[in-house]
Structure formats: structure tokens, C-alpha cells
Amino acid sequence: MLDGELTLVKKKVTKREIPPDIKAVKLILEGGGDEELSDEELEAEKEKLLKMLKENGIERKY
To answer: Rounded to whole angstroms, how far apart are CA atoms 62 and 59?
Structure first.
């Protein structure tokens, strides 16, 4: 208490995890820029992302 007024001592900080499918939908709706990629380029990007997930300890659940 300062001069009879309450002061904030702690501030609660929360992080909300957004599911990846919602992130993907948002990216698509905003124009993710993938329209120019060929099927081969998309497959290579998919493999790159899956490799990154695996390196970070995140496995496919399906």
C-alpha cells in the first residue's frame, strides 16, 4: 500500500496455446503465399517441417 492506495504486486501472465489446425486455417485465409508452389515443393516443405517437429521431440499423433 502506497499513500493509502493499493499497488499491484504480482501480475498474472498466461500463455494460450493455439491448436495447429487453427493456425493453418488462419494462414490459408490470409493468403499464405503457397499458391505458387508445385506439388513437389509442397511435399519437400512438409518433410522439412516434419523433420523440425521430430527434432523438437514432437511426434505425429496419427
So the answer is: 9
Q: Yes or no: say if 17 and 11 are a contact pair by the CB < 8 Å rule.
A: no
Residue 18: pLDDT over 60: yes
Burial group, residue 57, by CB count within 10 angstroms (0-12, 13-18, 19+): exposed
CA 58, CA 16: separation in Å to the nearest integer? 18
**CB burial readout 19-43, b (16+ within 10 A) else e:** eeeeeeeeeeeeeeeeeeeeeeeee
Tell me: the pLDDT tens digits for 26-39? 877 777 655 677 88
